[in-house]
Amino acid sequence: LRQPWVAGAASLTGLCVRSGRVLRCDDAETDPRVNRAVARVAGVRSMLVAPLHDRRRIVGVLKVTAAPPHAFDDEDERVIQLIAGMAGAALAHAEAFAAMRAARDAAEEANRLKSQFLSTISHELRTPLNAIVGYAHLLLDGMGGPLTPAQTEDIGHIAGGAARLRTLIDDVLDLSRIEAGRVELALGEVD
Questions:
Q1: Who's near 91: CB < 8 A, 6+ residues apart?
Q2: What's residue 77's pLDDT?
């Protein structure tokens, strides 16, 4: 059994969970810890019940049954205890692996959302930046009338700052494309 169980405190399973040790029933017909009616329907007279431990707690039980009474001995108890120990360790490893997989999936999703955010924000910043650069060049070209040397210098600083900002945004956008695997390389010879 590997699930939250409802075992009576006096049942063999419940006592195994509470004690944390292997329990043996030699004859279900005479053992008060066993539900005789259920054992009869199942055709069971002998049982071994071993706790499955992970590192911190009991996570289930391993129950072995047999039709004849007195079917199990001390050696069988040692074997089921060994098997239960290995099964408990395997369950702990499986749970740790599942937790690692969930953490990896969450990290990949966070990375995907980050890349999507960077791509979106980069595109959103480019639109007003293009307007700033465009109007700065129009002013520098004299479209708004003659400029004083101080105005020309100030607008030049605006255009230069906007160009540096556009380069940064393009770099962020390129990085998000690279991370998303959406970059195509055009290979060719250069001088």
A1: 2, 52, 54, 59, 60
A2: 93
